[in-house]
Design goal:
3 copies of one chain form a homotrimer.
Chain A (H helix, E strand, L loop, with lengths): L1 H11 L1 E5 L1 E5 L1 H25 L4 E5 L1 E9 L2 E5 L3 E5 L1 H4 L8 E20 L26 E8 L5 E9 L20 E10 L4 E4 L7 H6 L12 E3 H7 L4 H7 L1 E8 L2 E2 L10 E6 L14 E9 L5 E18 L1 E5 L1 H29 L3 H8 E5 L4 H4 L2
Parallel strand pairs in A: 13-17, 14-18
Antiparallel strand pairs in A: 3-18, 4-10, 5-6, 7-9, 7-17, 8-9, 10-11, 10-12, 13-15, 16-17
Chain lengths: ~375, ~375, ~375
């Protein structure tokens, strides 16, 4: 009992440390130091400097609001001279992190719920009523068939449909785009960010930007890098696209705002970086279903209470504002963890050196003798004999 | 001075390596090799093969555009025969990563700003004007009370309100849903992705898909796995829901597109995987506030300039398109890090084996004698005595 | 040949373990144990308890739908007495993870496409037609100039423009806000979440919440922490803002729902935490371009088919619902990894202790003699000589 206690007591005060063989040699020593140097270089260079391993990181929380400005003038046979302002060409009027600008459209006026012959392209040509099925609704068609076969033109007959008549004109979007003026529209992008872990707030309207400057400035990498007002054409051009070409069929643009901040530095160094790229693919050899368009309508009631609508197939550019960012600030925990990992890595140096020393060196036998001692359990002498 | 220099010099060429005791034994050896095998198996199997520890990874950037097609026919007493096309049932006409399809609705025609009796259910029944408060606006009510008490029906009197009159009919959504035809609507989902770190772009309209195919194809796991056009009913069915049931009260569907790509392989192997699930909960025993609906209105002005509106309580299915994905490509840094961690783990083998060897083995005393040597600082002999 | 085989055979059964020097000493032992205690404390306290290193984690998938309720009454010279309900003040009627409530507006009635003098502030004052350029469209202006110079008022002449006339009144938003009643609006936020990896689903309408309770309850930290219906004013107040002040120029509010769940605990412990903050910056000393507003229009056709519109510059509060969350559940792999890392860290204890022992201790020479043995490669005796 007493003995047990004592041995435990002894145990407590025991400190075990490996017994070390020190080899003093030009070759081996140099090899050792070089390997150590490499590891330390890696730790300092990569872990500390490049990856900032001594910092605790947090990712960005962001809110974006946008405001487009500009006026376009169109002059078409059916609409006549017409002005388009922001309330006309931004659809829907407000979105989260995104805004759409109408650049081209196919318009169909005064549609009413009534009967009219199916379009030619839909492939519902007919000779007599027998070729048409009452109530048939087909994804290719524009309405529900009434079962009648009527004249589309002098020579062509198609099945009659119950639909919004007259049917939408099926044609390619006009070139040049109707709202080509959109290239001169400007958009004010307001972006407020927050790093919750560090309770750090900032917005892309920097302190030095005042109201008067904001009234007339336009973003430019060289002259106005801090101005949060962007010309649509400039954004598209930076993405190596031609605005007028893109405006015809529409598309999706990405406005990337990156907020990578080192909060150990003065917070004024933490500024947004803007970049622009086209998000929807448009590679020439696989240009199936290009661009971006959707249909929307304005509904009216004429004097005798009948509902009519103006259908628009709107082509345009949707700008998705994407905010990225990571902030780092010194923190003891990640520092310790990384230093620990580094030291552990230093332990591997021995593994590497040992291997070289005990295989390649001329004096390897001497080293081995010193390094290793043996306990032989079962006699293998027999096999050791020649 | 000279001596100091020399010792430093010596120091530089010193290489310290632990002195090793080699035990040659059937049991111990086998144990050792087995443990090593386990660790190596873990490193190769889990770290390398499963987790692809030799790869640098990047997460996906994506843009989504959608286009719904289809026609529905409704026949109601107040609307008569009516055609619904994409401009009618997609609200709002365009959204980012999401689209809403109207499947059922309660419609209230010709509302004007005027006076009418409060609805019965709101609980503002009254006997005389004294029971009504002028200017009272209650979340349960439909308007601002005028203070009068008027006849709702022959026998019921309720407070009069200033509101959009006539008030919305309070009823459950019709069964079957008015736009049940929506199950046959199709949607083209265009999704372009990008892995910035590897400058890799791709879209879900694969190279082999051509325009003519895209005109008629519909997604199907078996026959058309590459077709980006989806039938609404198919999506809902894959989520183990019944479309007609879901259409009554509406809901939220998730369209998940996953782009997990191993960029060490040919890029043609990187294809999207589609999956569908219902996002809003509908468990029977906690079915409070089910489905998804919202109110919207169309505004008109009648001939004498007075504003009227058609109020719609729209039930429908919102499809949220969610794009996931991670790409991996060989990179030397993560490889080294993982191999290092693996070797470090090998070091732990000794810890485990030692423990077994020095506690369980019969010859443990022999081993201990050889392994350990002691420096005794303070004499504990007394306690060691029996 | 036979010998080679044998040596390989021997090799296989070899087990190498470092030879250890055990120092029995009060000081050294205590030092050793303390350092070990520290490391173990770190592993248990930080890695296991705080960071739950034994858990596999998954991040949340979420879907949000919202429904606003409430009525506002405005009384203005141009609109007269007017009721605003959800279909009037929520624009667009449905969004993903976000909803906008109109709180203030500047309204311009009966705009038509016609000619009118440019506004004063735009800076296009003129003396004669020569000062005006035909077809000039300027971002500051409201239309396309016709080249005429006309009377704006008795004394001021400005260039005539082709635009939506009459032009929008340029004024600050009214104080108090027109729809100040919005502070009493309530919103039902339905949020369903999912942790795919653990196949765990939950919604923010908890099982104990029944329909009758949901009809009248309003969220309150103290009395109704589980009610998913929020009063707009309460949300704004919790973000330390004054609703009426914010309502004037509008802004962006963040509704944060956090779902941090320990799935080793009963799932009923996994409940949402709500928090509210203002997302758009409003620091007094940099209050450039404050608030949030956008323009939208309602389009009408008068009896003779001419299109007119009502333009509204809407100020309001956009509520972005942000769902965060991470779930953890016991898993063997991360457990092993973390324990391994912990043990590796224990190895570092020796490094630290050795350094202290061999530099600071009085008996360091004795220890060194025992710990180290030397192989001297090239005789440095000469330098060793005094």
């Amino acid at each position: 009992m007493q003995g047990c206690c004592a041995s435990l007591w002894k145990c407590y005060f025991e400190y075990s440390t490996p017994r070390i063989l020190v080899i003093r040699s030009l070759k081996v020593g140099t090899l050792n130091r070089i390997t150590q140097a490499l590891v330390i270089a890696y730790i300092i260079g990569y872990v500390c400097v490049l990856k900032k391993g001594y910092q605790d990181t947090d990712s960005v929380l962001s809110s974006v609001t946008t405001k487009v400005k500009g006026i376009a003038l169109t002059n078409t046979s059916d609409l006549g001279l017409r002005i388009w302002d922001v309330a006309d060409y931004v659809i829907p009027p407000q979105e989260e992190n995104s805004f759409f600008v109408l650049t081209n459209l196919i318009i169909t006026l005064n549609q009413t719920q009534s009967r009219c012959p199916e379009s030619n392209s839909s492939g519902f040509t007919c000779a007599s009523d027998r070729d048409c099925t009452v109530g048939l609704r087909d994804t290719r068609g524009n309405g529900v068939q009434t079962g009648k076969c009527v004249n589309l033109s002098a020579h062509v007959k198609t099945c009659e449909v119950w639909a919004w008549c007259p049917l939408e004109i099926e044609s390619e979007p006009p070139i040049p785009p109707m709202l080509g003026d959109a290239e001169n529209f400007t958009v004010l992008i307001k972006n407020s960010i927050r790093y919750p872990k560090f309770n750090f707030n900032k917005r892309n309207i920097l302190p030095q930007v005042n109201t008067s400057y904001l009234k007339h400035c336009v973003f430019s990498r060289i002259t106005d890098p801090d101005c949060p007002i962007f010309r649509l054409k400039d954004m598209v051009t930076e993405a190596n696209e031609d605005f007028q070409t893109m405006a015809v069929h529409g598309g999706v643009m990405g406005v990337q705002i990156s907020w990578d901040c080192d909060l150990d530095m003065p917070s004024s160094w933490c500024v947004p970086k803007y970049s622009f790229r086209r998000l929807d693919n448009k590679d020439p050899e696989n240009n199936v279903a290009p661009g971006y368009n959707f249909r929307f309508a304005k509904y009216y009631k004429n004097s005798d209470g009948q509902e009519t609508r103006t259908l628009m197939k709107g082509y345009g550019i949707r700008f998705d504002v994407m905010v990225f960012g990571q902030a780092g600030k010194f923190n003891i925990v990640p520092t310790l963890v990384n230093v620990g990992a580094g030291l552990a890595l230093l332990g591997l140096v021995t593994v590497v050196c040992d291997w070289i020393v005990l295989t390649c060196m001329t004096k390897k036998n001497i080293y081995m003798e010193e390094k290793y001692s043996y306990v032989d359990d079962f006699q293998l002498l027999s096999t050791e004999a020649p």
